[in-house]
Amino acid sequence: MGCGNTTSTGTKDGVTEKARVTFVLGGPGCGKGTQCSLMVERDDFVHLSAGDLLREEQATDSKDSKLIKDYIKEGKIVPVEITCNLILKAMQKKGMSKKFLIDGFPRNEDNLQGWNKVMNKHANVVQVVFFELSEDIMLERIMKRAETSGRADDNKEAAEKRFNTFKNETMKVIKHFEGKKMVHKVDATGGIEDVYENLKDGLIV
What terms describe the molecular function in GO for this protein (predicted)? Predict the structure, then answer.
């Protein structure tokens, strides 16, 4: 499962600068979205949520919308080609010279391989931020969020499926990047500002 990305950016022989990408991973309900909002506000990142992009596409009449809806409802991982193309389209719309937070992706080894195939020529991955939190607290946060979110996957059954997916599949991706010394682990148990302070200590901006 080779990554092939480097931590450098710039132009060479007239080639356009690649986007700088930080993957943001963690179990459902760990607070990724909240912290990404702070990094956008304070650290000049552009935030792209793979889940939000999929939900937005699901709401359209595109050929992929029903497929995406079925995968999300079951707590399964959407085929990588769909997700990568949505991410690339969103990055191009924002401008490839920006530095991006890609939230909730890659979720498994297939996602990572798909990213490498589609995105290596467009972006450099500089870091993986991993928010660590217990399942009990994540479930508590999800159920609280469900009161106002309206998300189809904000329920106990879907959350448990997503926990299993994270443990069995996403952790392999995190281990891969740990081997490359690219993972910044963040304790996500405290309040929003406490977690942000933990995040800032080691964040590559």
Answer: ATP binding; nucleobase-containing compound kinase activity; phosphotransferase activity, phosphate group as acceptor
Residue 80 tokens, joined? 């990588």
- Residue reference for tokens 């999300």: 72
Residues 6+ apart with CB under 8 A from 164: none
Spatial contact of 50 and 102, defined as CB atoms under 8 Å apart: yes
At the topology level, CATH places domain 19-200 in Rossmann fold (3.40.50)
User: Looking at the DSSP assignment, which residues form a beta bridge with residue 12?
Assistant: 15
| For the chain, domain boundaries | 19-200
Per-residue pLDDT tens digits of the chain, which is 205 residues long? 544 443 333 444 445 678 999 999 999 889 999 999 999 999 999 999 988 899 899 989 888 999 998 888 887 888 898 999 999 999 999 999 999 999 989 999 999 999 999 898 999 999 999 999 999 999 998 898 888 887 777 888 888 888 988 999 999 999 999 999 999 999 999 999 999 999 999 999 8
**β 19-26/99-103 pair status:** parallel
pTM of the predicted protein model: 0.82
β-partners of residue 137 are: none
In terms of C-beta density within 10 A (0-12 exposed, 13-18 middle, 19 or more buried), how is residue 132 classed? middle
Report the distance separating Cα 195 and Cα 185, nearest Å.
11
The CA distance from 100 to 123, in Å, is 9
Q: Is the peptide bond before 106 cis (omega within 30 degrees of 0)?
A: yes
